[in-house]
């Protein structure tokens, strides 16, 4: 199951996604074919060398105690933490359970903390994710919903793609089109630079299957935003 998901996400332009949030069927992060040809250790040492050069080019003195370890720290953070969601090996395994409770209404997990990174500026995107699904007969551990959000957040992203990737993954894992994803986020590239608007935020949505019906969207919004 896991391998199939990986292949779908990274290499197929024709994923069987039916969510209404999708303008086209390709939700994959653009990634090189040789992305995993070198080890994480090699990636970290290369990033450290390159980031040291950026620091030197902008004029920092790397012999300073406070700065000396920064290239290695950044390299470790990129590979092991904030961009670890690029590596399919880090995709959370999602164990399904049978829905033995006869619960057939929507389940909502709201206010999932999101940290991601704008792929245009490499600065944080911070926000909340709300996800909902109607069980197809299978249910998933609640914390797995958070882990799926975290996994796709830990990549250079645009919020639209992130929304669709989470929707597509939930659809695949839960074996249903009845999925909703709402992301409300602030982009530091908007807040702290450029137009420097700290008050604005960005909302994106994915509504699939029965959760794309107007009454279901209204019901969902009532739980989330009343
Ligand atoms: Zn940006």
UniProtKB/TrEMBL annotation:
Its EC number is 3.5.4.16. SUPFAM superfamilies: Tetrahydrobiopterin biosynthesis enzymes-like. Homopolymer. Pfam families: GTP_cyclohydroI. It comes from the Bacteria. The lineage of its organism: Bacteria, Pseudomonadati, Bacteroidota, Flavobacteriia, Flavobacteriales. PROSITE patterns: GTP_CYCLOHYDROL_1_1. It comes from Flavobacterium salmonis. Zn(2+) binds at residues 118, 121, 189. Keywords: GTP-binding, Hydrolase, Metal-binding, Nucleotide-binding, One-carbon metabolism, Zinc. This is GTP cyclohydrolase 1. Belongs to the GTP cyclohydrolase I family. Pathway: Cofactor biosynthesis; 7,8-dihydroneopterin triphosphate biosynthesis; 7,8-dihydroneopterin triphosphate from GTP: step 1/1. It catalyses: GTP + H2O = 7,8-dihydroneopterin 3'-triphosphate + formate + H(+). GO terms for molecular function: GTP binding; GTP cyclohydrolase I activity; zinc ion binding. The keyword Signal does not apply. GO terms for biological process: one-carbon metabolic process; tetrahydrobiopterin biosynthetic process; tetrahydrofolate biosynthetic process. PANTHER family: GTP CYCLOHYDROLASE 1, GTP CYCLOHYDROLASE I. Residues 51-214 form the GTP cyclohydrolase I domain. The keyword Hydrolase applies. GO terms for cellular component: cytoplasm.
């Amino acid at each position: 199951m896991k391998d199939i998901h990986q292949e779908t996400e990274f290499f197929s332009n024709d994923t069987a996604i039916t969510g209404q949030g999708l303008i086209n069927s390709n939700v994959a992060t653009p990634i090189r074919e040789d992305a995993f040809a070198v080890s994480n250790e090699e990636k970290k040492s290369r990033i450290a060398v390159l980031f040291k050069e950026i620091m030197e080019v902008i004029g920092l003195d790397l012999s300073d105690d406070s700065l000396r370890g920064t290239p290695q720290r950044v390299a470790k953070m990129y590979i092991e933490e904030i961009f670890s969601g690029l590596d399919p090996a880090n995709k959370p395994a999602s164990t399904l359970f049978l829905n033995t409770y006869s619960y057939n209404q929507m389940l909502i997990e709201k206010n999932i903390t999101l940290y991601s990174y704008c792929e245009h500026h490499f600065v944080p995107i911070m926000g909340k994710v709300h996800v909902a699904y109607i069980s197809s007969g299978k249910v998933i551990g609640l914390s797995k919903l958070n882990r799926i959000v975290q996994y796709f957040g830990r990549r250079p992203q645009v919020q639209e793609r992130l929304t669709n990737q989470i929707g597509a993954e939930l659809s695949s894992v839960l074996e249903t089109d009845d999925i909703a994803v709402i992301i409300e986020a602030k982009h530091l590239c908007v807040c702290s630079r450029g137009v420097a608007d700290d008050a604005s935020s960005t909302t994106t949505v994915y509504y699939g299957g029965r959760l794309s019906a107007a009454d279901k969207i209204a019901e969902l919004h009532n739980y989330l935003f009343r």
